[in-house]
Amino acid sequence: TGIMKKAKAITVLCDAKVSLVIFGTSGKMHEYISPSTNLTDMLDAYQRSTGKKLWDAKHENLSNEIDRVKKDNDSMQIELRHLKGEDISSLNHKELMVLEDALENGLVSLREKQSEIVEMMRKNDQMLEEEHKQLQYMWHQQEMESMKGGGVGDHQNDHHHHHHHVYQRVRDYQSQSQMPFAFRVQPMQPNLHERI
């Protein structure tokens, strides 16, 4: 307590910057810092005047980490350029072969995916074509029925509901037909047809 009082007195009487840190035997810490300053500034000033680095280890770890990340980033940038076929003069034969393999594998799976899409579109076209034929056939049957006309027997009544359903489907299909064909097949990419 006496030392703390002295520290305060020196601060006031001498207009000095005082920092005091005491650890007792129990490990309890007591500290005093002049109101005109703070501990960081005091420690920085101490470091400057003594040439001792107080927090070197921590800083070093951090800057090592930053360097490591920078290096990783640089090597990734280089790899990316190599994959694009740039700056490859520095590579040896084996490295070029590895690169070529990687690109070939990539191409194979790209082409597989492409033909998958084309195949899917072809199937879609076929399905629409089939449905169109089927609806035309149903429509034709319907026309034939209505042209026959005739007495309304029980048998015909059974079909009445079914015919209504057919009309409905044909109408649905016709309204769908107003949309551009390619757009119906591939709503995500309307112009995919032209590109193939």
UniProtKB/TrEMBL annotation:
It holds the Pfam family SRF-TF. GO terms for molecular function: DNA binding; DNA-binding transcription factor activity; protein dimerization activity. It is found in: Nucleus. It comes from the Eukaryota. Residues 1-36 form the MADS-box domain. GO terms for cellular component: nucleus. Residues 59-145 form the K-box domain. Keywords: Coiled coil, DNA-binding, Nucleus, Transcription, Transcription regulation. Residues 52-86 form a coiled coil. InterPro entries: MADS-box/MEF2_TF (IPR050142), TF_Kbox (IPR002487), TF_MADSbox (IPR002100), TF_MADSbox_sf (IPR036879). Its main location: nucleus. SMART domains: MADS. This is MADS box transcription factor.
